[in-house]
Amino acid sequence: MFRYKVDDREAQKLLRNLITRFSTLNKETSFIQRRVSRDLQSHFDKTIDPRGSTWQILSPSWAKKKARLRPNEKILSFDKYLQKSITSPSAMSKWVNPRGVMFSWSSYLPYARVHNWGGQAGHSIMPKREYGYISPEALNDIAVFIMRGI
């Protein structure tokens, strides 16, 4: 019979430190969540894509209907269903992996993708109106926040 004794105190200490470090990420993840969510919502107000171009105008038939029902609302803001459907990392997902922490934002609406990327929607071709991106300003705010914490 062989007996092995492994001194794993260093490994246990390392794991405890990692757990402590990831548990303190709540402040950072909360800031990132709020900043990106605010940034995504602002894209609907500004109606511009990541390159600074204005979103394509509505089709004449939809513009006429929208003018009658909601005359002062912007493109993709009809009842704000799409805006409200974009979920944040605390609600959807947060993964910790060897490269760091990764977040995702998404929408549960089936038409969210076609509005962001454009394409075929039933019998219509939807123009690309990108709202699902993080602006350079938001990325800079996040970088500054993280650098202050290091």
What's the quick description here?
With 150 residues, the protein is α+β, with helices and mostly antiparallel strands.
What does this protein structure show overall?
The chain has one domain. It is built from six helices and six strands, in the order ααααββββαββα. The strands form three sheets. Strands 1-4 form a two-stranded antiparallel sheet. α2 (26-46) runs antiparallel to α6 (136-149). The chain is an alpha+beta fold and 150 residues long. The chain is elongated. The protein has helices at residues 9-23, 26-46, 60-69, 81-85, 112-117, 136-149, and strands at 86-87, 93-97, 100-104, 106-107, 119-121, 124-126. The model has no long low-confidence stretch (mean pLDDT 78). A hairpin with a 2-residue loop joins β2 and β3 (100-104).
- Calculate the mean pLDDT score and round it: 78
- Number of domains in the coordinates? 1
How many helices in DSSP terms?
6
Return the string of H and E elements: HHHHEEEEHEEH
Quantity of strands, as a count = 6
Unreliable segments of 5+ consecutive residues:
none
Which structural class fits the helix and strand makeup? alpha+beta
